[in-house]
Amino acid sequence: MYEAIARTLLDNHARLIYTVSRAAGNVLMGFQGEYPSLHSEVCINEKIAYEQALTGACVGKRTACLFTTEGLYEALDPVMSSAYTGVVGGFVVVCMKETDEDVTPLGPFAKLPTLVAAGFEEFTRAVRFGYALSETYQIPVLVQTAPDMDMDGALRFSTETETRVKGEIPGLGHQVSNFVKDPGRWAATPKYRYQLHKTLNEKLERIRTEFEAYPGNVKTLKGKSGVITDRYSDMDFCDDDASILFISTVYPLPSVLVDDFMAEMNEVSVSEGSYPTIEFQIGDRKKIISEKIGGLGRRGKPMETMYGFTVVRDTIGPASSINLAHGMKISEPDRKVLAITFEDHFFHSGMPAFVNTLYNCSSYVLLVLISEKEEQIRKVLEGFGFHNSFHIEGFPEIERFHDHQDLTVLFCEGII
Q1: Cα 6 from Cα 24, distance rounded (Å)
Q2: What's the whole-number mean pLDDT along residues 222-239?
Q3: Which of 8, 25, 324, 48 lies closest to 156 in space, CA to CA?
Q4: Fewer CB within 10 Å, N- or C-terminus of the chain?
Q5: What are 89-135's pLDDT values in tens digits?
Q6: 71 with 186: CB under 8 angstroms?
Q7: How far apart are the first and last CA of the chain?
Q8: pLDDT above 90 (res 349)
Q9: Is the model's pLDDT at 316 over the cut of 80?
Q10: Residue 169, pLDDT score
């Protein structure tokens, strides 16, 4: 999996590649002899990896990040800023969908072009197109792919395809760094930020026009009932006489292509992830029979409970459970809340959140899942003047802290 993805990036002349996966890092190190100008790093978190790749792209290098779809959400701060500042060299962020999490909602949220690639051939096309798009419009490009690609076919394809490059190519493999000082772009005050916002919107409209002819968007006309989707797996459940519009360029949505398809249909279903990224971008939704948008306000709130606690996890970023638990206790002081985070997440974003909890005198139980950094976290907590922490040998011990009235931190090895 990683070998095929890494080779595709390298064959498209990416020479600065950052990841947080040691497995991916080991694969990249194996290409060092074949691509002498390659520089790769395994960073401690996605935010640092994204910032380093962004820095290289700002000075004219072709760079890449290799994350999971869930991991990209941990780098939201630089992701959001990079849409405004843009890049000079090409910058493609490859996100492997290993969970139910999609990166497609980040397209309209961060205003970054987003492509979905199901198979390896589609992935190769998306990376090649993504770099061309990134350099033409000076903007990072997100590419979501699946980890279950056919490795034998992938490597065979990468050997035979025209993108396979032997050795280094002057001007691409050995790009010369060149940072052009432009405070109005790289360190924009609100006045210049507004101009960057207008420029970004103009870029996206030009990119939308390019997406209209993208080969990965496939229209198959049969009956008058249509399906618009960005995932091949959903196509297996379509009726034999259903017309299908498969969208690879999820954001910005190629509106002319979509409108033409809908004009030929009597009714249309939009099949996508839990967030209606495609559906939200369709202006006239009269023919759409799915109920995602209409049903957003009526969705039930799944609530996890454990040992008498309401459980809060890091669902919207590293250590986000700490701030979420604090908010829940402020709104419902009598609720018993258990926040669960990881030791690396605590160092990523948990410290300021924990200080905020202390400052506002909130009380809940924080469970930190540890492997080797318990003592380091204890010293940090002691530096905050906090000493009410305990090590537990098993998760059932959580129950005995149910009636504690003070803020409590628990350390336990394992995953729950």
Answers
A1: 8
A2: 76
A3: 8
A4: C
A5: 999 999 998 888 899 999 999 999 999 998 889 999 999 999 999 99
A6: no
A7: 28
A8: no
A9: no
A10: 40
Q: Summarize the confidence of residues 342-353 as an average pLDDT.
A: 90
Mean pLDDT of 161-181: 53
pLDDT of residue 159: 42
- Rounded to 10 degrees, what is the CA torsion of 392, 396, 406, 343? 50
Q: Report the amino acid identity of residue 42.
A: V
As a whole number of angstroms, the distance between CA 217 and CA 157 comes to: 21
Q: With 0-12 CB in 10 A as exposed, 13-18 as middle and 19+ as buried, what is 248?
A: buried
Q: Using pLDDT thresholds of 50, 70 and 90, give the confidence band for residue 334.
A: very high
Contact between 251 and 276 under an 8 Å Cβ cutoff? The reply is: no
How far, in Å, CA of 52 to CA of 69, rounded?
Answer: 19
The tokens describing 117, both together, are 């690639």
pTM (2 d.p.): 0.78
Q: What is the Cα–Cα distance from 136 to 116, expressed in whole angstroms? A: 20
The Cα 38–Cα 172 span in angstroms is 11
Under 8 Å between Cβ of 4 and 149: yes
In angstroms, the CA 233 to CA 239 distance is 14
Query: Measured between alpha carbons, how far is 357 from 191 in angstroms, rounded to an integer?
Result: 35
C-alpha span between 99 and 6 (Å, rounded): 21
Structure-token pair, residue 119: 């198979």
Q: Which domains are present in the chain? A: 2-211 (3.40.50.970), 218-298 (no CATH), 305-413 (3.40.50.970)
252 prior amide bond cis, ω within 30: yes
Q: Is 193 left (phi over 0), alpha (psi -120 to 50) or beta?
A: alpha
By DSSP bridging, strand 63-68 and strand 91-96 are parallel
Of 327, 271, 310, 284, the residue nearest 104 (C-alpha): 271
How many CB atoms neighbour CB 103 within 10 A? 30
CB 119 within 8 A of CB 150: yes
Nearest to 142 by CA among 104, 180, 173: 104
Nearest to 236 by CA among 353, 352, 400, 118: 118
Residue 49: half-sphere exposure toward Cβ, Cα within 13 Å: 28
User: Do 155 and 111 meet the contact criterion of CB atoms below 8 Å apart?
Assistant: no
| Listed residue (280, 270, 282, 284) closest to 230, CA to CA | 270
